[in-house]
Amino acid sequence: MKENFPPGVRPQRGAADAPVIPATPPDPGALAAKVRTLAPSMTRSMQRVAEAVAGDPAGCAQQTVTALAVRTGTSEATVVRTARLLGYPGYRDLRLALAALAAQQAAGVPPAVTADIAVDDPLADVVAKLALEEQQTLADTAAQVDMVQLEAAVTALAAARRTDVYGMAASGLVGQDLAQKLLRIGRIAHAHADPHLAVTNAVQLRPGDVAIAITHSGSTHDVIEPLRAAFDRGATTIALTGRPDGAVTQWADIVLTSSSSRESELRPAAMSSRTSQLLLVDCLFVGVAQRTYESAAPALAASYEALAHRHRPRAARG
């Protein structure tokens, strides 16, 4: 049994085990998306730093770590911790990203727009606002996706003997979507929404297999437990989460970060995060289909043919 690790710290495998893929700093244009995604899990002091750099990248890019700490009423250590949580090795790297973001904005890149849904909004306004939020969530996800991590995930899935996917509630539906997509291109994949069955299956995995945990919060115990069991048995483990510092990442070789719009009373996190998760699932599926095209294409054709009769109109009854 492995010991517990602080949030964001991953245990090290042996030399023969699957390596942990290092995360790369996000693109400057993804900074606002990272702030929106991570703000709910930050302390209030870290939120002040994050809001300052996202709201005034040009001004903050000119400030030293000490000056930014004074501006936000925090400490130098808080500024550095915030930079690292946002995906940058240190404050110097964050300043470079802020300068690049300021240059993009000066060139006319439009700012992100958000729209809250009120309880008395007309239905037409609800449609317009939801469409806007969905577009922003997809744009945020595409902007902040770590291509090194995504490539590693596709490579592992394309070579996997078997893939297990763990997810509860809304994340479980996303897991089912991924598993059925992989099945249709001839990959052996199973989605588990029952925590007991998830662990039972996880302990049967071995090197060459892949286990994927989907949890927006990054702290769902019923998802973390089977991922940890899979990790302990040498399977390549992937976390798809909205919290890259969450507990689930301790047992993940590869971390894919989803995005979400702001949570509200009428739009909970489970609803807003699903759009981002499904985009990442589609990226994984298409990437695997490309890598395994010679076997994926006939498998997909066979599945279409096998189900075609179910989509034909039935003869009218006499």
UniProtKB/TrEMBL annotation:
SUPFAM superfamilies: Homeodomain-like, SIS domain
Residues annotated as domain HTH rpiR-type: 29-105
UniProt-recorded Gene Ontology molecular function terms: carbohydrate derivative binding; DNA binding; DNA-binding transcription factor activity
Gene3D superfamilies, A to Z: Glucose-6-phosphate isomerase like protein, domain 1, Winged helix-like DNA-binding domain superfamily/Winged helix DNA-binding domain
Entry-linked CDD domains: SIS_RpiR
Record-annotated membrane-spanning stretches: none
Sorted UniProt keywords: DNA-binding, Transcription, Transcription regulation
A biological process term (GO) from this entry: carbohydrate derivative metabolic process
Keyword GTP-binding included in the entry's annotation: no
Top-level taxon of origin: Bacteria
Domain SIS residue range list: 153-294
Region (Disordered): 1-27
UniProt xrefs under InterPro entries: Homeodomain-like_sf, HTH_RpiR, RpiR-like, RpiR-like_SIS, SIS_dom, SIS_dom_sf, WH-like_DNA-bd_sf
PANTHER family noted in UniProt: GLUCOKINASE, HTH-TYPE TRANSCRIPTIONAL REGULATOR HEXR-RELATED
Protein's name according to its UniProt entry: Transcriptional regulator, RpiR family
